[in-house]
Amino acid sequence: MRELKMKSKYENMKIIYNRSKIGWYWAPLFVSFWFLLFYLVAVSSFHRMPRLKTTQDELQQPGQFIGERAENTLLRLSKIGPKVVGSAANEQVAVQFLLSEITDIIDGARTDLYNIEKDVQIASGNYLLWSMVNVYQSVQNVVVKLSPKNATSEAALLINTHFDSVPGSSGAGDAGMMCVIMLEVLRVITKYETPLTYSVVFLFNGAEENPLQGSHAFITQHPWAQNVKAVMNLDSAGSGGREILFQSGPDNPWLMKYYGKNIVHPFASTIGEELFQNGFVPSETDFRVFRDFGNIPGLDMAQVLNGYVYHTKYDRFNLIPRRTYQLTGDNILALVKALANAEELENPSKYAEGHMIFFDVLGWFFVYYPESTGEIINISVCVVVCATIVGYIWIMSSSTGMFRRRIWAKFGILTALQVAGVGLGIGLVLSIAMFLDAVNLPMSWFAQNWMLFGLYFCPMLFGMGIVPAIYFSRTKEHGLPLGYGIQLLMHSHCLILTVVTVVMISYSIRSAFVIMLCIAFYTLSVIINMVTRAHKTNFLWLIPHCLCQVLPFMFYTYCCYAFYVVFVPMQGRECNTNPEILMGFFTALMVILFAPFLVPLLCLFRKSKTIISMFGVCTLLFIIFAATPIAFPYAEKTAPQRFFAVHTARTFHNADRASTVNHTDSGYFVVPVDRRPHTLDDILFDNTNYSKAEPIDCDSEIMCGYPIYSSRWLNAVDNSYFVPGPEPNKDYLPTLSIIDKSSSSAKNIKFTLEISGPDHTSIFIQPVNGTTLVDWTFTKEPLEQNVKPPYYVYWSYALDPTPLQFSMEFEHENDNWSGDTFKIAIMGHRTHHDMYVDEEFREFLATFPPWAHVSSWIGSYNSWQL
C-alpha cells in the first residue's frame, strides 16, 4: 500500500514538474488571435453606428429623430461657407437661416402643448479667459425657449452649440452638425406630444470660436439664463462619428444617472473626464463658461472622429459619415427628454454632492456607480486579490512539497523580474520617444497610425517578455515547474497593479477602476483554476485564463483605439510638448494592463526568446521607417500639417512721445502649429525668392513684433518666423488715439485711449520704467491675480464697429515721470475679406506643398511707446 502511495506521489510530482512546451509554430497563431480580436471586435465596435432613418420611417414611427432631415439641413447650412464673427455670412446669412428654420418648426408645432419663444440676443462684454481679457462687442445669439403649457416651475434645461466657424472653414462638423441636431430635436419634441416638466432653452451661439464669447454673453446677460439649472453643451473636435462625453458636473452625480439610464449609444469614460479636466486636451468649450460664470452643472459632449480636419478647410459636409446624424440625434433627443423631466432640475444644489465613476464597454452598454461605491469595490477587489495570491501559494506548497518560504522567495524573485521587465519596456519606450524628438523625427505616426505598433507597443512587449524568458530558460533543471513559474510571474504583476490601485484610491483618482477591472478578471481566472485544480496541469489552466482575458483585452484595446482617434489628430495642433512622450507613455500604460497576462504565455512555446526577440527586431525596423518617406507624417486632405500665414504690414514708433515712425516693413508672418516647424524650410527658401527675416529683439518689441491673433499663438512664437514681402492692402489698419491724459496724484497717471480697426484685434500693453497698471476699464481680474505683463486684450465685434474706448491708470514707484509709461502693440486681423488678398500673397501661399494646410488672411502690427 505504501509503495502504491509513493508511486502515486511520484507520478503526481512528475506531472507537476513536466516542463514540456508547445511547438513554436503555434505562437504566430496565438498572437494572431489577439490581433484579430482587436480588429474584428474592438475597432468595429468603435465605428458601429445605427442606420440613418428617413422621412418614410417617420410615417411608420412618429416621434423619432430623423437623421435624413438633419443631413439635408446641414447641407444647406454648410453652403453658406465660412462663418467668422463679424462677417456677413455669420451675422446675417447664418442668423437668418436659423431663424427661418425655427419659424418653420414653430409653424408645425403643437402650440396647444407648448409656448415657443425665439430671440436674437445682441450683447457686449468682457471677461478673463486664460490670461487674456476677452472683449466682445455686438455678438449675436439665436435663442429658442420651449415651455410646457401651464408649467408650475421656471427651471430650465439649456442645450448649447455654436454656428460660427474659424476662418476658411465651413464648419460643417464644428459645429454645424450639432446645430442641425438641435433643430431636429426641437422639431421632434414640438411636433409630437412629448411630455415636459421643465422648459428647454436652445442656444445657437454665434461667437464660440472667438473664443467662448457667445456663451458668456448669454449666461451673464440674457434674461432666460437666470432660470437655467443645467446645460448640455454640444461641440465637435472632428467631423462626425460618435460623440464622447468629455466631462460632467462638476459634482451633481444625478446627471450621470440620467445619462446612463437614457443614452442610446454610450461613449463616455471617467478616464476622458479626468484627462480633460487636468489639461491633457488642448481645447476648451463653452461648458467652461457656463460652469464658471453661470455656476450651473451639465454634460459636455463632442464628436471626435477625423480630428485631422478640425478647424481646416477640409471640415466639409461630404466627410461626415451619414449614420452620425442618427447616432447623435438619438442620444441627444433621449437625453433632452429625460433631463427636461428630471425632478433634480428644480433645485440641483440639493443633489450636487458626489462624483460618479462611469464607462462604456465597447459601446455595447454603460456602467456607472457613485464614487463611494467605487471605493468599496476597488478595496474589496484588492483584498480578494491578496487573499487569492496567498491561498494559491499555500496550495502550491502542499502540491509541490516545497517549503513555503522557498516559494515566497521565488515569488519575490519573479516580482523583481516583472518590475525589471516593465521598467525595461517603459525605459525603451521613453528612450525612443525622446530620441525621435531630439533628431527632429516626431509624429511619424500622425498619418500612418500603424507606426505606433512598432515604435511603442513592440518595445513594451519585448521588455516585458524577454526578461522572464531569459530567466525561465536558465532554470530548467531547478526551481519551480514552468507552469507554476509563469503563473507566479503573472501573480506578481497582479500584486503590483493592486498596489497601484491602492495608491490611486488614496488620492481619490476615480480612474482606478481601470486597473481594478484588470486585476479582478485575472483573479477570477486564478480562482477558477484553483477550484478546478487546473492550475496543477501543464496547459489546462490556460483555458480559463485566456477566456477571462478576452473581455479585458477587448475593453483595453477599445479604450486604446479611442484614445488614438481622439489624441493623435490633436498633436497636429500642439507644439510645446513632445507628442512622442504622450503617445509612448499612454501606450505603455495600456500594454501594462492588457498584455502582462498574455506575454508571459509566450514562454510556454519552444524558442520563446527568439519569438519575443521579434518584437525587438520590429522596433528597430520601425525606428528606421521613421527616418524614411515611408513614415512621412502628413498627407493631403486626410492628415495635413497646419500653418497660419498672415500678410502683414508692421510699423514701429519711436519712444519720443511724438509718435514718429522708427521702422516699417512688411511680409508674411508664418506660424507652424505642430512639433515639426521646419518641414517647409527647404521648400519655401531653397531656390526661391523668399527668405526668413532676422528676428526682432523680443525684449524691445512686444511679442517679438509678430501679429498675434489668439492666445494659442503665444505658445508658437518661438517657432514662428517673418518672411519679407510686399505691403498688403492697408485700408484696414487699426488707429490709436489718446482721448485724455490726466493725473490724480503725483504718482498716478490715467490714459483714455480709443482704438479702431478690423473686427478681430489683439492689444498688448506693457508697463515700463517702473510703472504698474493699477486700474482699467476692463475686468480687474488680471490685476488682482497678478497676471504677468504684457496684458493681452482680445477685441472683436460683430455688428457694431464703434471704436473701442477704454481707460488705464498707472502708478509709478516715485513722482519722477520722465520716460515712457507703457508700450502698446495693436495687431489687426482681417480674417474674412478675400477681396483684399493680393496676387503676391497668393503666389506665396502657392509655394506650400499639398500636404500643408494654411489658414491665411491679412494682418498688421503697430506699436507705440507712450
Care to describe what's here?
This protein has 22 helices and 20 strands. It is of the alpha+beta class. The protein has 3 domains: 55-354, Zn peptidases (Aminopeptidase, 3-Layer(aba) Sandwich), CATH 3.40.630.10; 375-629, no CATH class; 641-865, no CATH class. The strands form 3 sheets. Strands 1, 2, 3, 4, 5, 6, 7, 10, 11, 12, 15, 17, 19 and 20 form a 14-stranded mixed β-sheet that branches. Strands 13-14-18-16 form a 4-stranded antiparallel β-sheet, with no helix packed on it. It has a two-stranded antiparallel ribbon with strand order 8-9. It is globular. Residues 1-18 have low confidence and may be disordered.
* Total number of helices: 22
Molecular shape? globular
Total domain count: 3
What is the distance, rounded to the nearest whole angstrom, between the alpha carbons of the first and last residues? 109 Å
Task: Supply the helix-strand structural class.
Answer: alpha+beta
CATH class of the largest domain: Alpha Beta
The CATH homologous superfamily of the largest domain: Zn peptidases
**How does the major sheet shape up?**
14 strands, mixed
Strand content: 15-25%
Q: In percent, how helical is the residue content?
A: 40-55%
Task: Please name the CATH architecture of the largest domain.
Answer: 3-Layer(aba) Sandwich
What is the total tally of β strands? 20
